[in-house]
Write a structure and sequence with these properties.
Helices cover about 15% and strands about 30% of the residues. By secondary structure, it is α+β, with helices and mostly antiparallel strands. It has a seven-stranded mixed sheet. Strands 1, 2, 4, 7, 9 and 10 form a six-stranded antiparallel sheet that branches. A six-stranded mixed sheet has the order 14-12-15-17-16-18, with helices on one face. Helix 1 runs parallel beside helix 2, helix 1 runs parallel beside helix 4 and helix 4 runs parallel beside helix 7. Keywords: c-di-GMP, Cell inner membrane, Cell membrane, Cellulose biosynthesis, Membrane, Transmembrane, Transmembrane helix.
Length: about 725
């Protein structure tokens, strides 16, 4: 019933490929990471695009649909675009009198023999001007490639063997850069512990997906149509696996779908729900040990507890970090060409890093490059953070020996341009995914009038041992702050294994609510790139368990929350069609308003109404059980509205609009407010703590300073009076 298949292709009775094996995929340049058009400036300049090929597919044929506009100054015959796939020239697209200066579209077949696990598409502009004297770097030499251009892959699925050694593939394939969509199948009589096991499985796959985004459709007693995870106990299993053999131990097994030989099912099995949890932990903690179609898990536990802020995806704050640690392959730190593409280095900064009055983050930058002909040309290295220019360095003839620069990389909201080495342009965003970009530009060499010598193909490299240093910063943050939850999963991701997190859901959750749970926890684990094996899941407000936890409430019935939150009422109440909100005054751009000012959090308006339309909300507040713990509640008038709130966390365009203590979702719109008394999480040195909080109240600070001077004066006067009295007594005795 469940045979083991190989990589061999199956033909239908007519000799044609099985239609179930055929799949077509279209990737726009936008989906490959380019939000804007690709600007190619100068002759022999290239742009690069990367994409992967899944393990369970073989590319049979492919096509590049290229939309572009070329400069009207280019001359035909000599000017053209060269298309490379993994270093192999595929096509040369000529610039003609008919298409230059006009939008043109061409369809170019790509040779499937050159596809690999990871593919690089390079588009190079070779441009010539109709002039006797011209410069390869002339601004008139350009081409604009539309982000609507597409790569179309026509592939054939292959029959993978049932082998656990290829995990997490094919359920998650690191070669696939698209959002992870992985169905999770339950039997009809699932219980809270089964849901808990599925949540941990979603956390594992989310930690693998990282930046791609996650989607975990929930199927109840229904066979999936694609690769899926199935939660299976001896007493609760979906109908299509009702006759599958029972087990006595926690078991992991890969089988082939009974109706589709190209689809694999990962069975997480146990005699009961407790064994399911052991099997999931074995998957998350011991996947490197798995092989063969079946594995039984005898023991899986985390012996050494995690410590705060040790997430694999967050930059270390206990020592300087080398740039080589922040990239998967040191080769990405090297470029070639006169105007090569940017070298990009991504990093996440802990959301609660306290950077008040910081002079910036030290960056010891080391780089080497092909030296220019002289020191007076325009060759340079430009550095930017999140698209904002920071500093530029001239490339000199000493480049062959390398050069070191110490830069202070500024932090968000650190002011504007200052003097010395204090570059005060908003750049690093604490808690967000940051991108440092380094752009080398080599000028062509002018040798006398009317003679331009191309600079050849210069090379440049950022040394992997260049360091960036976040040490010495304490952890302290003003809450509630839904922005850090939306961008980094904070405060739950403070512990990478989510061991300080308790998730509360209603009893007997619906499939859609379970889907919201799986996707939310998957999102948290994706933020830290580590499975949340320490997560606690409850279906009631157990004060004893919640006392020392950050609480994530998903779709919790208000009657459950009332008893727990009676001491700290949220700014928004949502009960079916009844809605009530407390709001501050309309103060303009709320996102950048200084909320720490007195009165900024005060409720100025109260609104209560009844409505039946789609409505979801995120609410942040202080935990009623611990002053340094937080509660984030995800609510919806219907389960589908709750799922829409969850998926907003995987929608980059919505994240900037989620902040404060309340975020409300209606269709495509997001409205956020900050209401209620703020609280602080973390610790500061006593002196810094005093100065930070009193800095917002200068008159109180001045009064305290004056009072201190008066007290010191009185004490000094009393001491002098005592000394004078003693002297008088000595004189009288004599």
């Amino acid at each position: 019933m469940f045979p083991v298949f190989s990589f061999a292709e199956e033909k239908s009775g007519s000799g044609e490929p099985d239609p179930r094996s055929l799949v077509s995929e279209t990737m726009t340049f936008t989906s490959l990471g380019f939000a804007d058009s690709l600007d190619v400036q100068g002759s022999e300049t290239s742009v690069y695009l990367g994409f992967g090929s899944r393990l369970d597919r073989i590319v049979k044929d492919a096509e590049l649909k290229l939309d572009f506009i070329s400069s009207p100054a280019l001359i035909e015959v000599l000017s053209h675009l060269k298309i490379y796939l993994n270093g192999e020239l595929q096509h040369a697209v000529p610039v003609t009198e008919l298409n230059k200066g006009q939008r043109d579209s061409v369809r170019l077949p790509l040779d499937s023999r050159y596809f690999s696990d990871y593919n690089q598409l390079r588009i190079e502009l070779v441009g010539h001007l109709d002039q006797e004297c011209w410069n390869p770097s002339d601004p008139a030499i350009w081409a604009e490639i539309s982000q609507a251009s597409e790569v179309v892959l026509n592939s054939r699925r292959v029959r993978l063997s049932n082998d656990l050694s290829i995990l997490p593939a094919p359920f998650f394939d690191r070669r696939d850069f698209s959002k992870l969509t992985l169905p999770v199948v339950f039997g009809p009589d699932y219980e809270i512990d089964t849901v808990y096991a599925a949540t941990l499985a979603a956390s594992y796959f989310g930690s693998q997906a990282k930046w791609r985004g996650v989607n975990f459709p929930v199927l109840i007693d229904k066979a999936p149509e694609q690769h899926a995870v199935v939660m299976l106990t001896n007493t609760n299993r979906p109908a299509f696996l009702v006759d599958f053999p029972e087990v006595d131990e926690p078991t992991l097994q890969i089988i082939t779908h009974p109706d589709n030989p190209y689809v694999k099912l990962l069975l997480i099995q146990g005699r009961d729900s407790e064994q399911l949890l052991t099997a999931v932990r074995g998957l998350a903690l011991g996947s490197e040990l798995l092989s063969g179609p079946v594995a039984t898990i005898s023991k899986a536990q985390q012996i050494q507890p995690r410590v705060p802020y040790d997430s694999p995806s967050w930059i270390r704050t206990d020592r300087p970090v080398k740039l080589g640690e922040l990239v998967d392959d040191p080769m990405v730190l090297q470029v070639e060409g006169r105007k090569p593409s940017d070298i990009s280095v991504s990093l996440r900064v802990p959301p609660d890093l306290f950077t008040w009055q910081s002079r910036g983050i030290p960056l010891d930058l080391r780089y080497r490059y092909s030296p220019p002909e002289n020191d007076s040309d325009d060759s340079s290295l430009s550095m930017s953070i999140n698209g904002q220019f920071v500093e530029a360095f001239s490339l000199t003839t000493k480049g062959i020996n390398g050069e070191a620069k110490r830069v202070r990389v500024p932090l968000l909201d650190d002011g504007f341009l200052g003097g010395g080495d204090r570059i005060r342009i908003p750049a690093f965003q604490v808690g967000s995914l940051n991108r440092m970009s380094f752009r080398f530009a080599f000028a062509a060499v002018n040798s006398g009038a009317c003679r331009t010598i191309p600079a050849g193909s210069p090379r440049a490299i950022l040394e992997a041992d260049s360091t960036i240093d976040f040490t010495g910063y304490p952890h302290y943050i003003e809450m509630p702050n839904l922005q850090v939850f939306a961008t980094a999963g904070y405060p739950f991701t403070r512990m990478a294994d989510l061991s300080d997190t308790a998730v509360v859901i209603p009893p007997s959750p619906s499939p859609i609510l379970i889907e919201s749970l799986l996707e939310t926890v998957g999102y948290l684990s994706a933020s830290v790139a580590y499975p949340g094996m320490g997560l606690t899941l409850l279906d009631s407000w157990d004060k004893k368990v919640l006392a020392d936890k950050d609480i994530l409430a998903i779709g919790v019935d208000p009657s459950m929350a009332d008893s727990a939150l009676e001491e700290n009422q949220p700014a928004l109440l949502l009960r079916k069609s009844q809605r009530s909100i407390n709001r501050p005054q309309d103060l303009g751009n709320l996102r950048y308003f200084p909320w720490s000012e007195d009165g900024a959090w005060t409720t100025a308006e109260q609104v209560s109404l009844n409505a039946n339309g789609a409505f979801g909300a995120l609410i942040g507040m202080q935990s009623p059980f611990d002053d340094e713990r937080s509660v984030v509640a995800m609510l919806g008038t219907r389960d589908q509205d709750l799922l829409d709130v969850t998926r907003s966390l995987n929608t980059p365009g919505r994240l900037p609009y989620i902040f404060g203590s309340v975020a409300m979702f209606r269709g495509d719109s997001v409205a956020s407010y900050i209401v209620g008394k703020p609280y602080f999480v973390g610790h500061l040195p006593l002196q810094t703590l005093i100065w930070y909080h009193f800095s917002k109240h200068p008159f109180i600070l001045a009064a305290c300073a004056l009072l201190l001077v008066v007290l010191l004066t009185i004490i000094l006067w009393r001491l002098l009076a005592v000394v004078a009295a003693r002297r008088l007594q000595v004189d009288d005795d004599e």
